[in-house]
Specification:
about 270 residues, mainly alpha, two-stranded antiparallel sheet, globular
Length: about 270
Amino acid sequence: MRKTLKTISLILFSALFLIGVADNADAKRKKKKIPKKPKYVGAAKCNGSCHDPYYQAWVNSPHGKTFDILKPGERADAKKKAKLDPEKDYTADPQCLRCHTTGYRQRGGFKPAGSKNKKGKDTSTKIDPEEPSKEQVGCEMCHSAAGGGQFRVVMKNTKGDFKKAETEKYGQRWDYENVCTRCHNHPKSPHGDGKLDYAKAVATVHPTEKYFNEDNADQNIVKDGKVKDRAKEKAKSEEKDLRIEDWKFKKGKLKFAKGTRPYSSKKKKFYYKK
């Protein structure tokens, strides 16, 4: 009898040990490796299990429809005011794509129809009308300096329990009011004819309340204790604004002006306004 009990105990111990090892292995597998370089991944990556209500609110906001405005006949009055032809197709115009899409002319960013690599392969961004992403002004245009491919992994690995410095070092920016000048009222914008009302504008970008339900209630970052704790922290980019890119056109292509980038992925260094 004693021998039988000993055998059963060993079997149970072995089973529990194996379960523990398996759980640890699963935990390690679930933690993704942070990419070596930042890149734009698109707003659709924020949809689903992470920020679904915020994505849905964005889709129905002005930022979620910026590419559509470039189509012929759309927003005719605004185009006339900017001395643009309201019947012209601007969906491949580099002057417009810089501020009407996500990450244009940057690693992983939007590429218009007709884009090809050196081998002639089509590299243009695939557009899904049911799930807008890089073709509109997405999350990364406001929240990142060079694309959210890296700090998005930090957010997922920590399940949202991260410090500002942990994501900022990968290019997340916290100078939100300043970042609006990336496009709104930028000297190169044909629409730069006034000062943006930041408080009013933010209210139209994140009207999330009506998009919460029983299935995604746990994604409410405003009510999340982690976010409240993070609000007490002070990120470097909150204390001093990051630079805003300038650009020029060469042979019909947009080129970022030297010395105007806010972040160097090669040097892993931020550049602030003087």
